[in-house]
Target: 3-dehydrosphinganine reductase
Amino acid sequence: MADSNLFYISLVLLPLILLFLLFLITRPRPIQIPIKKRHIFITGGSSGIGLALAHRAASEGARVSILSRSIDKLEEAKNAIRHSTGIDVAIFAADVRDFEAVQRAVDEAGPIDFLVVNQGVFVAQELEEQKLEEVRFIIDVNLMGSFNMIKAALPGMKRSRKDRGPGSIALMSSQAGQVGIYGYTAYSASKFGLRGLAEALQQEVIGDNIHVSLVFPPDTETPGLTEENKRKPQLTSIIAASSGAMKADEVAKKALDGIKSGSFTIPCNSEGILLAIATAGLSPQRSYLMAFVEVVAAGILRIAALCFQWNWKAFGPWYMLNWRREVEGQVMSHFLLSKNYNVGRSWNLEALGA
Model:
């Protein structure tokens, strides 16, 4: 009886002790970073998530600057934001791969309080099929472009912190930056790189009252997604369909709320939360309650991840088999509809790229 009572007491006390310990050690502490009347600079701000972020920030009273390559799209975005909020935003045309152009834009924009590094390009394709020029382009824009942007803005952000209060640097990653996804080999590599950049940068700038955030949106209904779907491998589409796509404004709300609270990891949906817990690693965590969930759930999610990897060995061959059957079915349909039996008989899988 005594042993049984001790067991139940331990069952209650151990989680409470763990919670108290996590409360003591979680760093940095929770914070609220005000956005009203402060300057937010958003790259990739002429469309998609960047434009939705600009709308939200402007509606909350921020001074907004957006940067993109196309001056025409920037003008359209500026007019759209003015129409919906009555506020003018500053626009800057520059390619993030060009450090000098980015530096000029940052200098002209003035002191930055919130830097949102949001630009991104992606071409969903198996690595074997993808051209190296496309791989370089993805890495240059998504990863090197982020380095260029931060390198240009950081000195000014550091100098102005004493007078302007806490600052923020947010990097727009992807759920493909939390877990590798079939057909996203180059894209995942560029987005995984942002995590290393963010974790190291947080250590470098937290002493200057600058807080780093890493946003992990899923597929988002943007013009970029429409273009991506035209070339996306079938298996990639199957995987993406399992979680669905979010609206750009929904992602922008999640992102901006997380940025204002100084959160390091900002997931945008339930799958993203599970991935954030599973991949927490050595990343910062402000919430001791979330830290508790990460500690408790880590083992369970690791088992789930191992089950996924085990299942992939079966799913891969299954997909190839069913894809081949689908192609063979198309061949048979063409054959039956063909008026010329000899032409129909000459068709084969090789000719169809199978």
User: Anything to note?
Assistant: Residues 288-337 form the longest helix (50 residues). The beta strands are 39-43, 63-68, 90-93, 114-117, 167-172, 210-216, 220-221, 246-247, 265-267. The first strand starts at residue 39 and ends at 43.
